[in-house]
Amino acid sequence: MIVITPKLDMESKEALYIQLYKYIRNEIMEGRMEKNSKLPSIRTLCDHLNISRTPVVLAYEQLLAEGYIQSKARSGFFIMDIAESSFFSSNTLIEEKNNILSSPSRLYHASKYEEVLYDFGYGSVDLENFPFIKWKKMMNRCLLPESSELLLYGDLQGDEELREEIAVYLHQIRGVRCSPQQIVIGAGTYHSLDLLFQLLREDVSLLALEKSVNDGVQTLIEQYRFGIHSLELEHDGVRMEDVYKSKAQAVYVTPSHQFPFGMTMSVNKRIKLLNWANEEQAYIIENDYDGEFRYNSRPIPSLQSFDQNERVIYIGTFSKALTPSFRISYLVLPTRLLERFREKKHSYDQLASPIFQKTLQMFMKSGDFERHMRKMRNLYKKKHDILLQAIHEYLGDNVTIIGAGSGLHILLEVRNGMTEDELIESAKQRGVKIYPTSVYALEGERSAMPAILLGFGGLSEERIVLGIEQLKIAWGME
Predict the structure, then answer these.
(1) Is CATH 2.60.120.10 what the domain over 16-91 is classified as, yes or no?
(2) CA neighbor of 172 nearest in space, from 367, 405, 383
(3) Fold of the CATH domain 132-366
(4) Which of 164, 225, 291, 430 could make a disulfide contact with 470, Cβ separation 3.0–4.6 Å?
(5) 108 confidence band (pLDDT: 50, 70, 90)
């Protein structure tokens, strides 16, 4: 068994578990810990270093997650053969990290090269409860010789049987009224929006949208050179006076769970917005972001479900319901835009995998998707409630929670005198990854009170609590 004697600085701002993790990782990468060597047990190392159990557990967990060590039942922890694993030699790893540092940082979850123990990224989902066995079984059926057509490009509008399942699902869950013929499958939200903006070029020169919006959507809009009118946000959605003054031909909204601030558009405003669109012959682009997850109240039907005049364009994705990697989204187009799509007044190509589409269709038809969604709603509600409880316990009156009750993220307004950048950097020193909100402002403004975005979908219940506890220390709220 290896004896480990790292130099741990008890006065350092860097957490003990990060110091221990880095020491062991470097020893492995430099070859000073040989493959298959056994590490000390957690209790042995705690006693040897005279530290508590938590830093050792967290350091070992991170090493396990990154593939430096492996756990063998009833035997302990052992050094992996890095040369034969999916990781790199030390030189390659250093070179790769340098490349990462020069690349744009992710705004939705941490890179695998970042030394993060608690990642509150909004783009993460609970993968431990993904139905791997059932999904694999159905995908294997797609790879039989009789399904060989799935190895080709696929239908431009998307798998017809999948569109039938989506139409039924949307009507049952979100009240959307549409036929399968109105649905166009895409490879993610941005892909679907790219198609939509191509179809709208003839009608739209000025687009109104919420004053804070996803940065990827902002970039896409800039490519089409629409004029932009910013809409102020109130506690129940966009300020309608701004809509009336906008003279826009289309408005983009996230009414179910506004991104990033999390408010839900009231029914009263939904009706007013629909009346405006009908009077002005304008379109409403409804991105039903996080619409499937609502915890403390009855679901509010989609905007599209109220629409009597085909003014709403509905867009959604399976990224949160399943996993982002499948890249399956969908548009529900009004008749006029559907005709434009079929006339091929666009450069759109179907990029969503036919194999994934067919697997999802079978998953939905079997009833497994509905059962999975029920399970995930209960799971995410529990995580949501644990997060709020931990914030109240550890952060107390130093913060204000914004946007609770739905979706997979909340915002924290923090009152401790730190700037947004300082809050993020101090959290990073404690191994916690949190995310800014200022980057989503259309006009680049920062609010007087910094607000931090916390996603909870990808963290375990235990790590949610431990992460918030570390934020208390990082932000000096002890």
Answers:
(1) no
(2) 367
(3) Aspartate Aminotransferase; domain 2 (3.40.640)
(4) 430
(5) low
Q: Please state the domain extents for the chain.
A: 16-91, 104-125+371-474, 132-366
b/e per residue 40-61 (b: at least 16 CB within 10 A): bebeebbeebebeeebbebbbe
Task: Return left, alpha or beta for 237; rule: phi > 0 is left, psi -120 to 50 is alpha, else beta.
Answer: left
More confident residue, 330 or 264: 330
pLDDT at 90: 41
The pLDDT assigned to 216 comes to: 83
The pLDDT value given to residue 60? 84
Burial class (CB in 10 A: 0-12, 13-18, 19+), 311: buried
> What's the whole-number mean pLDDT along residues 139-151?
90
Return the percentage of the chain with pLDDT > 90, whole number. 54
Whether CATH 3.90.1150.10 fits 104-125+371-474: yes
Report yes or no: 204 and 229 within 8 Å, Cβ to Cβ. Answer: no
pLDDT at res. 113: 59
- 265-291 residue pLDDT tens: 999 999 999 999 999 999 999 999 877
Interval 286-312: pLDDT, tens: 999 877 888 877 767 899 999 999 999
Residue type, 403: G
Quick check: 183 pLDDT over 50?
A: yes
The reply to whether 16-91 and 132-366 are identical in fold is no
- Which of 122-126, 338-342, 439-443 is predicted least confidently? 439-443
Cis amide bond preceding 324, omega within 30: no
